[in-house]
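User: Can you predict the 3D structure for this chain?
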Amino acid sequence: MKSVKVYHYDAFSTKPDTGNPAGVVVDGELLSEAEMQEIASKVGFNETGFITKSDKADVRIRYFTPGHEMDLCGHGTIACLYGLHEHNLLPQKEYMTIETKAGVLPIKLQISDNDRLYITMKQAAPKFMEFGGSKADLAAAIGLAEDDISDVLPVMYGSTGIWTLLLPIKSLAVFKRMKPQNQLFPEILKEIPKASLHPFCLETELEHADMHARHFSSPFSGTVEDPVTGTAAGVMGAYYAEFIKKEAERPFELVIEQGLEIDRAGKVLVKVSDKERSLDIEIAGTAVYVKSMEISVNQ
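Assistant: Here is the predicted structure, written as structure tokens:
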């Protein structure tokens, strides 16, 4: 057996045991893909990030759920870079790049007045696809009725690196009633069976927040709910620009609140700018160290 140190960081929060937990392995270079998957399964978080060397960027990050590898993870990126910062392993510059399976992405690093690192992460160009399935089945799969779904805004698949189904909900009040049956998702999401499900609304609980959301995982990931989701927050910003306020002057910023129903409240800042023939989407946040753990893997 081999012992590997995994650092637990909570992303999109400054208070331990809130926000979104992620495992961080700073010496991922020493591990095989099978070992990475085994570690992620044993850690059990929605994502564990493994940092390795890159010949295309400053660092490479690989992201694993307990069930499979992901192309990109917003909260995993924030956690990994914050972990590198605390281990004095980040490049000493304002701008850097990370290599991911979703491409090489630029990162901006800013130290706040209270000496906390804030990380701004550019996401992949947004893509959308119409949902052609049953809204009644969709609602039932998360414990709601079809008339809880907005009849003004479209149900759309969206991606800024990872596909999720953006599901507009009429009222904030019903979010506490949601009970996902994740195993039903692939049959309902026929166009993209491995997509996650991201219900949201324009009512919020926290001051200065613009949108409220929950995020229910694909059953292939081995998890049920993601507390605060960076990639989904990013595509929500693109959805807002395309389908909610197309006339909004750009650039603009949105604050997305998530995780309140499961006592893991966190906020993601989303920046939306114009780009030639597309939108430029960035997310920003910080993280906080919680603890370290030793995980044994088979050699």
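DSSP finds five helices and 17 strands in the chain. Residues 257 and 267 are 5 Å apart (CA to CA).
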